[in-house]
Automatic annotation (TrEMBL):
It comes from the Bacteria. This is Alkanesulfonate monooxygenase SsuD/methylene tetrahydromethanopterin reductase-like flavin-dependent oxidoreductase (Luciferase family). Residues 5-300 form the Luciferase-like domain. Gene3D superfamilies: Luciferase-like domain (3.20.20.30).
Length: 331
């Protein structure tokens, strides 16, 4: 089996020049995908356009665009434009995000997120297929079509962790891009979604599972572990309750509780994972020397279609470079 690898970043990574530089290196190293996130800092779409103009082969994904921050029409325009700029290499990643982001940044009530996600995916797909906009709030208006050539082939990958949003991913998406899924739970979860997809859409096309561990390579394995631990602790103790709840439900509630207790004032670069919670770190992260990282990626290759190395924010360029080289697809 040929290993398929991707790269992803966190919303806390706001060094535009570093993001672009990492994407160019990932393209040279043979990675399949490069995913640029969007939270409350950089707008990911112009960065994706810049990367598209500086790379030749790698697929570029929005990972993710929030359905609260853009209308379906805006999402469709964005996807069609990036599809053109990248010469067909764009993947539209959509998700409902978190309550903190929807309400605290976009000033939008976080109500019925799975329904919001389902409607957005369906409406964006219809617009990209050349259909007129589906109007709800002004039904008497004349519905318009996207003023660009239809692009129904743009893949839509859905970020989801809860039971209702993962159902949306299975039924309407071309792929699933969850974050922070324990490695040993991923294959069975993906298999469940595959069965759900087949029941909902018999004969549906390929469904891509693209996810992977927080990844750090360093000559000093202890330094790599500390960076991975800080990022893990931040996600479980500071990013609302979505990740903590998800990992807890996978059988790690005690360890997640210990991480939260150990980080009363979370920081994306100074968090800790106490020894008792080490099993969670080893399920969510890959860290160590270059050879150790390469070896630890092998079990992930069995669980996901595209194993995505998630780079912690703020790490120096030499560490990013070492990590990308270590996690690159073999050969």
């Amino acid at each position: 089996m040929t290993a398929r690898r991707g790269v992803a970043l966190t919303p806390m990574e706001t060094r535009r020049d570093v993001i672009v530089k990492a994407a160019v290196l990932a393209d040279e190293l043979g990675y399949e995908t490069f995913s640029v996130p969007e939270g409350w800092g950089l707008d990911s779409t112009p960065i994706l356009a810049e990367i598209a103009l500086r790379t030749a082969r790698i697929r570029l994904a929005s990972g993710i665009l929030s359905v609260w921050g853009r209308t379906p029409a805006t999402l469709a325009m964005t996807a069609a434009t990036l599809h053109q700029v990248s010469e067909g290499r764009f993947v539209l990643g959509l998700g409902a995000g978190t309550r903190a982001l929807a309400e605290g940044f976009h000033d939008t009530p976080f109500e019925r997120p799975a329904d919001k996600l389902r409607d957005a995916v369906a409406e964006v797909r219809a617009l990209l297929a050349g259909e007129p906009a589906r109007l709800h709030r002004v039904p008497g208006a004349r519905p318009l079509r996207l003023g660009l050539p239809p692009a129904p082939g743009i893949p839509i990958w859905v970020a989801a962790l809860g039971p209702r949003t993962t159902r949306v991913a299975a039924e309407l998406g071309d792929g699933w891009i969850p974050a922070l899924v324990p490695r040993d739970r991923l294959a069975s979860w993906a298999s469940d979604l595959g069965r759900l997809r087949e029941a909902a859409v018999p004969g549906a096309g390929a469904f891509t599972v693209a996810t992977g561990p927080i990844t750090v390579a360093d000559e000093n394995p202890d330094a790599a572990r500390d960076i991975a631990a800080a990022c893990t602790a931040w996600y479980l103790s500071a990013m609302g309750d979505v990740y903590a709840r998800s990992v807890s439900s996978q059988g790690y509630a005690t360890q997640v509780g210990a991480i939260i207790a150990a980080n009363p004032r979370p920081s994306p670069r100074r968090g800790i994972v106490p020894p008792a919670a080490r099993p969670v770190l080893d399920q969510l992260a890959v860290y160590g020397t270059r050879d150790q990282v390469r070896e630890l990626f092998k079990p992930w290759d069995e669980a996901a279609d595209v194993v995505t190395a998630l780079l912690p924010p703020g790490i120096p360029w030499p560490t990013i470079e070492a990590t990308l080289v270590a996690a690159a697809p073999p050969g």
